[in-house]
Amino acid sequence: MINFKERIKNKYSSLSAGMKKVGKYVLDNPQALAMKSASQLGQEVGVSETTVIRFCYSLEYSGYSELQNEVRSFLIFQKSSLHEYQAGKEELVNKPNFFAQNFQQHQAHIQEMKENIKEEDLQLAVDRIYQSNKVLVTGMRTSFAVAHWLSFTLNIVRGNSQLIQPGIDDINHLITKLDSESTLIAIAFHRYTPSTLKLAEAAKKQGAFVIGITDSDLSPLSEHSDVLFPIGLSPRSTIDSAPAVFSLVNTIVAGVSVIDIEEFKKRRDNYDRFNSENFFI
């Protein structure tokens, strides 16, 4: 059964500006909706009570009370994304070809993501990365692995990327070196780490171009991004999102690599000529 969060995400693009404000507020503060009347919620968000009621109708609820009751039940029985991940695997474990079924789920997630992302946004991001004098990449917790891979691979094909590592790097120094010719790629998913959001905000203030990779148009990362890539998968588990996220960043790297094929060939040849016998087997 589709819940209120999924309804908001599915309908978000078609909502009016006022109803979008309500939707974002409800996703960020479901406890407030559970406790407040429609009038009080409208005052909190800065819209009319009528807008709140129309928002409920747009999500195909009979009214505010039905949405409020669902949110209250959700808060009582809410489980973590790990429960979602485990439940999804338990559904497959008794079916034939468990591993093949998992591969098929990954394929479906990549296809779902593909439908949420615009070709022109990908081209804009790729062009900006190629043109930038410096590209910083940041991601914490489950996003760190993606950020590390993306920074490492961009350095192979372009050579102008750096992974931000809190606790090691002087973040203030890195951010103050950003300007209008720089790009920050910020990766953040549900339970968005404040440090990633603050880095995106700071980079934006420095005039840098910010590329956001996240789970939804409603992510707080959207406020600081010049171009946003919402993965938009229906499962809540960030673990299940990983194949789609890696597919996205690999596609971005592929786009950068073919802008100037001759330059990439030179970088490849230099990479291959490097005497690495002291570092690799």
UniProtKB/TrEMBL annotation:
<dbReference type="InterPro" id="IPR009057">
    <property type="entry name" value="Homeodomain-like_sf"/>
</dbReference>
<dbReference type="Pfam" id="PF01380">
    <property type="entry name" value="SIS"/>
</dbReference>
<dbReference type="InterPro" id="IPR047640">
    <property type="entry name" value="RpiR-like"/>
</dbReference>
<feature type="domain" description="HTH rpiR-type">
    <location>
        <begin position="2"/>
        <end position="78"/>
    </location>
</feature>
<keyword id="KW-0805">Transcription regulation</keyword>
<protein>
    <submittedName>
        <fullName>Transcriptional regulator</fullName>
    </submittedName>
</protein>
<dbReference type="GO" id="GO:1901135">
    <property type="term" value="P:carbohydrate derivative metabolic process"/>
</dbReference>
<dbReference type="GO" id="GO:0097367">
    <property type="term" value="F:carbohydrate derivative binding"/>
</dbReference>
<dbReference type="InterPro" id="IPR046348">
    <property type="entry name" value="SIS_dom_sf"/>
</dbReference>
<keyword id="KW-0804">Transcription</keyword>
<dbReference type="InterPro" id="IPR000281">
    <property type="entry name" value="HTH_RpiR"/>
</dbReference>
<dbReference type="GO" id="GO:0003677">
    <property type="term" value="F:DNA binding"/>
</dbReference>
<dbReference type="InterPro" id="IPR036388">
    <property type="entry name" value="WH-like_DNA-bd_sf"/>
</dbReference>
<dbReference type="GO" id="GO:0003700">
    <property type="term" value="F:DNA-binding transcription factor activity"/>
</dbReference>
<dbReference type="InterPro" id="IPR035472">
    <property type="entry name" value="RpiR-like_SIS"/>
</dbReference>
<keyword id="KW-0238">DNA-binding</keyword>
<feature type="domain" description="SIS">
    <location>
        <begin position="125"/>
        <end position="262"/>
    </location>
</feature>
<dbReference type="Pfam" id="PF01418">
    <property type="entry name" value="HTH_6"/>
</dbReference>
<dbReference type="InterPro" id="IPR001347">
    <property type="entry name" value="SIS_dom"/>
</dbReference>
